Amino acid sequence: MIKLSNKTLSALPAKTSRPSYDREALSAGIVHIGVGNFHRAHQAWYLHRLFEQGLDHDWAIVGAGVRAFDETQRQKLAAQDYLTTLIELDPQGRSAEVVGAMIDFVPVEDANWALIDRMAKPDIRIVALTVTEGGYYIDPATKGFDASHPDIVHDAQNPNAPRTAFGAMIAALKKRRQNSERPFTGMSCDNLQGNGNILKQTVVSLARMSDPGLADWIESECSFPNSMVDCIVPATGPNELALVQDFGIADAVPVTHENFRQWVIEDDFCAGRPSWDKAGAIFSEQVHRFEAMKIRVLNGGHQIIANVGEVLSVPTIADCMAHPQIGAFFSKVARDEIAPLVLPAPGMPAQAYVDLVERRFSNPEIIDTTRRVAFDGSSRHPGFIVPSIQSALREGGASMSGLALVEACWARMCEGTREDGSVIEANDPFWDDLRRIAIEAKTRPEAWISQSQYYGDIGSNSEFSERFDHWLRKIWNDGIIAAIDAYLAE
């Protein structure tokens, strides 16, 4: 077993691809906050492939984080010179590739001074983030900025010792402004429609709470491009650690991923950018079409099946797709109720995208657990399912019976038990509240869709509420499979 490091790259097994460029010659251009599996399998891979072409070696990544667990990740990566083994899980065969786009990782501190100092340096021209869909301090009721959140209140009162990534970005931008340096581009890589707009809203709104003049400067001088990111990347556990060892590599933080990636980016960078398009990314003025289709079909599709899988003790997404009722449930809802209301992206009709997602979800090599995919439904259902319901209501006459069943399945899962009697452990930041309402909804279904922070005014729509009421009562009376069978027979 060869321990991954710069010194051992040449000794890695011949079947493992490794950087051909001189990592010592790389210099930083990007700080990335939130160095999880997705970032290393997606954004870091595109940059690595660009470096392989001998291009843009002054755009290497400096990792960063603002939570205590990020320090553990930093230490693991530092011990192997910030290298990561990516294992592609193709049904036709697995392959391994070591990527070297990251060259440093900022020490994680309570007040984030080291992070602020690094982002304030003029060589950093992009600050990117993957902090999850629920990490942008959005008021769930209004979809605007949540100025009352304790983290935000703290950062507004302590702008020089912030606890959030956004507060640290503002403090760094303040230093750059004071030093007459150009601002950096802020780039969200999270699954949010209009993610650049949302990042701008968070940063500018937080800055305005403590320094209105700085907020005006950020709003006028910084750029926040929207982007769509797509690659299925499971969490790393014992199975993934064993896979990397099968390649003869000792890597403490390997990443597995499917044999598909897509990155569509709005070309709006105030301080320059790498030539990601030369590594396969797409720069487009129609990012919103790409992201709407992806968020509604793929991310929404995950929610269609993951909640059912949890209730029925089906362990993985691929297992769900192989299940006769769950796979058919995904297909009918996606084809009949979601795809018809999604504008096609360039070169990809919505129904063809459903075919693609169906194949990707069914990949048996991807061990993506239903529990991981079902996590944080309080962010994912409003972000991924509710927009399709709203489109159906606006359209008038469009079918939404399956979407109502999807939401009934979420309510059933949040009750906290599976049909085999086992307990579903807390899997949402608001789990206690969700479980309380889900229990109440067993006898009074309207309690669930009356949660305006997730559904807005959808709960007051009689057509949707009647279908939801019907499905949730049927689930509790007859079981979730009986409800799905009844839907499939409609």
From TrEMBL:
InterPro entries given in the database record: 6-PGluconate_DH-like_C_sf (IPR008927), 6PGD_dom2 (IPR013328), Mannitol_DH (IPR000669), Mannitol_DH/Oxidoreductase (IPR050988), Mannitol_DH_C (IPR013118), Mannitol_DH_N (IPR013131), NAD(P)-bd_dom_sf (IPR036291)
Domain Mannitol dehydrogenase C-terminal: 287-476
Keywords in alphabetical order: Oxidoreductase
Recorded superkingdom: Bacteria
Residues covered by the Mannitol dehydrogenase N-terminal domain: 29-278
GO MF assignments: oxidoreductase activity, acting on the CH-OH group of donors, NAD or NADP as acceptor
Protein name from the UniProt record: Mannitol 2-dehydrogenase
Species, as recorded: Shimia abyssi
Top-level taxonomy: Bacteria, Pseudomonadati, Pseudomonadota, Alphaproteobacteria, Rhodobacterales
